[in-house]
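Next up, sample data:
>
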Amino acid sequence: MLTQEGCLARRALLWDSVPTSCEWLLIADPRHVLYLSNFWIHPLTFSAGERCWLLLERDGKATLLGDNFSLRSRSADPFVDGEVMVKWYDHKHSVMNRDHALLKAAEQIADRLYGRSGAVEAEWLPVGAFELLGLDHEQHSVKTEAKDVGKPGAIDLGTILRSLRRQKHADEIALMKECMRAGEAGMVRLREIIRPGISEFEIFCEVQHAAIAAAGRPGLIYGDFRAATAAAPKVGGLPTQYKLKNGDMFTLDYSVVLEGYRSDFTNCMTVGEPNSQQRHLYDLVSAAQRGGESVLKAGTRAKDVFHAVNKPILEAGLADKFAHHAGHGIGLAHPEAPILVPDSEDVLMEGDVITLEPGLYVEGIGGIRIEHNYLITETGYERLSNHVISLT
């Protein structure tokens, strides 16, 4: 889980990123509520898909807003000073529209916002909340009675938060490492069970069990659990009932999600002994990954990382068979900045957590993709994922 120290540090960075005239911030994206308070509605509870809002005030106060069932569905204790809870369900009476319960919670703090400049995550706040709180739709800030004196103007709070999210704090990295250790357990299980006749779905079930058992608590997994054949070298998505055949290449590109954070790494294995053409593809993507690693450090342009990954593939005359990014950022979303593509304007920053994932998909041979996760440092990188990458 995230730590109080980490949440408070992220709040301080957020306050430094908005105008000093801004006295309060209403956070509505569930990922950002987590990022700043450690409040997360677990997706495996009956309140999955619901949300609470977080009010931050310049004096340091943090208040969660929500209904009684959403607030108690949290995965861990949040680091807040108080809660505004509206009773939505009491096992005796009919329930109201659950979104209205959230609005009623916001109504209870509206008086203390009037006349004070503030900003909201406009993309996540419903129109009803704008009307309730007297917010300016254009400027995303509260209207004051004093001719909007000191109003901060258009504050793109969501974009500010997404930018801050790139540079991971120690508690975020620790949580992502937990995801990676769980993911590695699933990779080990794949090696134990891959064989002709096993279905993609059976592999999914076995990998899921191993990963969640290693995590030691409920979590989610998603990704590509698919066989790549000579006839269909590039496939992805959730597993099917297809049964692996000798000569297939199986791609396990998946994420383990714990408390909203995730890993994302890949290995491709052959069913049976790889042939010379499959080994050639493996050698190329391995060289591509090493090429990307050679330029990883803060200050490197994302496009330059892509070109370093692509270089051995280009020299082999297979650039048209590498049909996706060379990697991307991960954390609370997938993918997130920086994006490693030819025309990216991103620049690597210290604290970025990224992937490198070269792939090749050749008809008549099959498809292969490999991937590791890295923490970008001032002078290079720390590789965070430790799974074995090999064809067998």
